[in-house]
Amino acid sequence: MANESRPCPCDIGDRFDYEGCGQEVQVEHVKAYVCKPAASTDKAVIVIHDIFGWQLPNTRYMADMLAANGYIAICPDFFVGQEAWKLSNDWASFDDWLKTRNAAKIDKEVDAILKYLREQCGAKKIGVIGFCWGGAAVQHLMLKNPHLKTGVSLYGVIKFFEDRYSLLHPTFFIFGEKDDIIPLAQVTLLEQKLKQNCKVDYEVKVYPGQTHGFVHRKREDINPQDKPYIEEGRKDMINWLNKYL
């Protein structure tokens, strides 16, 4: 039932049949997918994957969309070689699986990626977006990392970072109204706490009728009723990055 809290396990949605326009690179101890825009730029966005990992075609599609909008986009393997979650896995083992993949323990990888973007790609203004597990990671980075300019957290699991709201950088939070992993009560509380504690720009937006993962896990061509919200979420994400990068 919608809006009853349950653990992060989520449906993969529509798996995109998508090859990607970028290339895989090795950045210190991290593998990463990189896609660059046609024109040179000093703006870059780190894309943080969900539980299904850095090779999910849907996430690469989003990285390529950022490149098409003028950003160097990089999607690193934040599980650092550990297996991504598979739909064939037993959900009962999810909590144990998650213990070795902490969304707040990615600082070493982020530092390596920031160095690569600055030194190898000429990036000066760097933001971050993330989905689900990665959305929680965005919130962690917005609370801690001084080198990022802005972040977009897409249906980031709020319970990972309860009681931490003093963001360092402008942050945009995207949620679906019918998300059965993130109850609306949690979203309302997040808004209240940000209002009380946050000194930088932020926005929390709930998209009507939308379920968990709608921006990157739903194909707009086969979900006509959701198409306006999928497109709106993607456009809002790009507009936020354009504003702060």
Integer-rounded radius of gyration: 17 Å
Strand order of the largest sheet: 1-2-4-3-5-6-7-8
Distance between the termini: 39 Å
Outline the low-pLDDT stretches. Answer: 1-9
Multimeric status of the protein: single chain
Helix content: 25-40%
Question: What is the overall number of helices?
Answer: 7
Order of helices and strands: EEEHEHHEHEEHEHH
What's the overall geometry? globular
Please summarize the sheet with the most strands: 8 strands, mixed
Describe the overall structure:
- This protein has 7 helices and 8 strands.
- The protein has helices at 57-68, 94-99, 107-121, 133-144, 184-197, 214-217, 227-244; strands at residues 23-27, 30-35, 43-48, 72-76, 125-131, 150-154, 171-176, 202-207.
- It has an 8-stranded mixed β-sheet with strand order 1-2-4-3-5-6-7-8, with helices on both faces.
- By secondary structure, it is of the alpha/beta class.
Topology of this protein?
Layout: E1 23-27, E2 30-35, E3 43-48, H1 57-68, E4 72-76, H2 94-99, H3 107-121, E5 125-131, H4 133-144, E6 150-154, E7 171-176, H5 184-197, E8 202-207, H6 214-217, H7 227-244
Parallel strand pairs: 3-4, 3-5, 5-6, 6-7, 7-8
Antiparallel strand pairs: 1-2, 2-4
